[in-house]
Amino acid sequence: MSIKGILLRSAIVAALGGLLFGFDTAVISGAEKTLQQKYNDQYASIAQIFGRPETVTAEAEKELPMLQKTSFWHGALVISALIGTVIGSLLFGKPADKYGRSGIMKILSLLYLISSVGTAFAWGAVSFSIFRFIGGLAVGGSSVLSPMYIAEISPARVRGRLVAVTQFNIVLGILLAYLSNWIISMMNLGALEWRWMFGVEAFPNLVFFVLLYFIPRSPRWLVAQNLEDEARTVLEKVGTDTGNVEEELDAIRQSLIEHAASLKEPFFQAKYLKPIMLAVMIAMFNQLSGINALIYYTKRIFEMAGASGTNAMAQSVIVGFTNLVFTMAALAVIDHFGRKKLMLVGSIGYIISLSIVAWGFKSGSGGVIVLIGFIVFIAAHAFGQGAVIWVFISEIFPNTLRARGQALGSFTHWIMAALISQTFPMFAEQMGWKIFAIYGLCMVGQLVWVLLAMPETKGVPLEKIQKELGIE
C-alpha cells in the first residue's frame, strides 16, 4: 500500500533526529586524538587534583608516558556526551507527554545547535565536555522521541518500515560524520581543523529545527490533551488502517486508558524476571563487543595500525559505509530469517573479526589486516546486534510494560557504552592488542547466551511469547 505524502515527509523530518544522533555520536572520532594532545596539560592538572586514575606506584608512574597518565581524563572527556545521553534518554519522556513530541524535538534541535557551536568554539577541556554533554542530552532525547513520534503518526501497516527509517538515519549519520571528517582533514585547516569537524553539524541542526514547524502534532498526544478535533484532522491527513478515523480515535482512547492502568503495576517483580534479564543481557553484550570504542576512536585505532591521519579518516568512511549497507540488508531480512539467526551470524562474525584485529596488532601485520578485520566487525554488528536489539526488546515485554522495558534496555545500553568508551584509551595504551581479544572473548559469551538462553520471537504472537517466558 502507498504511504501518504505528508506521512512520509513527517517521518523523514522526525528521523532527522536519528541522523543528528548518529552524526553527533561519531564526529568525535576524527578529533579525539588531537583533543588529547591539545588538552594534555589540563588533564595533567586535573589528575594532580583528583589523583592518579591508574593503580600504580609513584615510582612506576615516573616511567609512564604523559599521555598514558592522562588517558583516564581524556576518556572522561570523550564520554561526556554519553553521560548526557543516559540522562537525556530518561529526561524528556514526561515533558513530551506535557508539551508534545514535536515541541520537545524542537528543544532537542536547539540543544544540538548549542552543542555543535559550543564545541567548535570551546576554550578548554571543561567547556568542551559541557557542550558535548548538552549534545548528549539531545542524542538521548532523540533516541526516544523520534521513533515514538513516527510510531504514533503511522498506520500499523507501515509503522515498522517508517520507524526503521530512524535506525537507517542513525547509521547514515555515522557515515556522514566520517565522510565530513575526511573531507575536512584534506582541507589543510591546521589548528582549526577539529573545530570545523564539530561546527559543521550546526547546518543540519538548523534545517531540522525549521522543518519541525511543518509537521503535524502526534494524534495520540492530541487525544491525551483533549484536542480531538485537531487529532481527527491529523488522522485524516496521515491515514488509518481501516480508513475510519472515528475507529482510530476510539482505539487511541482505549490505549491511553490501558497505559494509565499499567503504570500502577510494579515493573521489577519475579514474574517479569526473565524478560528483564534478556533485555539487560542483550544490551550489555551489545557494548561488550567494543562497538562504541570503534565508533569513538576509529581514527586512533587505524593510526595505531600504521595508517596516516588522512588515510585513517578514509578507512573510517569505509567502515561507516559497510555499517550502512549491512544495516539495510539486516532490516530487509530480519522478519524472514528471524532474530536469533541474525544474532548467531553476528556473534560468529564478531569472534572472527576481533580475532583478526587482535592478530593484526600483535603480529604487526599492518593496517590492511586491521581494516579487513574491522570491516567484518562492523558488518557483523550491523547484521546482528545493531538490527536485532531494539526489535527483540520490544517483543519480550507485555504491551502494558513495553515502554518501561525499552527504557531499561536503553539505560543499560548507554551505561555500558559509557563504560567501554571511558576505559578504551586507557586499556589500549596499557594492553595493546589484548583489549580486542578481551572483546572477542566477551562475544564468545554472547554466542553461548544466544544458543542457550535467547528465544526466537520471529512471527510468534506476543501472547505466546509472554507464555513461553512464564508471564501469565
Question: Can you walk through the features of this model?
Answer:
By secondary structure, the chain is an all-alpha fold. The protein folds into two domains: 208 residues, Growth Hormone, Chain: A (Up-down Bundle); 206 residues, Growth Hormone, Chain: A, CATH 1.20.1250.20. The longest helix has 30 residues.
Short précis:
The chain has 472 residues and is an all-alpha fold. The protein contains 26 helices and no strands.
- Continuous helix count: 26
Based on DSSP secondary structure assignment, what is the total number of beta strands? 0
Structural class: mainly alpha
Determine the CATH topology of the largest domain: Growth Hormone, Chain: A
Helix amount: over 70%
Using the coordinates above, name the CATH class of the largest domain: Mainly Alpha
Main beta sheet strand tally, sense and closure: none
Following the backbone from N to C, one meets helices and strands in this order, namely: HHHHHHHHHHHHHHHHHHHHHHHHHH
Identify low-pLDDT runs.
53-69
Termini separation (Å)?
Answer: 36 Å
The CATH superfamily label of the largest domain reads: MFS general substrate transporter like domains
Estimated radius of gyration? 23 Å
- CATH architecture level-2 label of the largest domain: Up-down Bundle
Oligomer: single chain
Number of discrete domains: 2
Question: Average pLDDT value?
Answer: 85
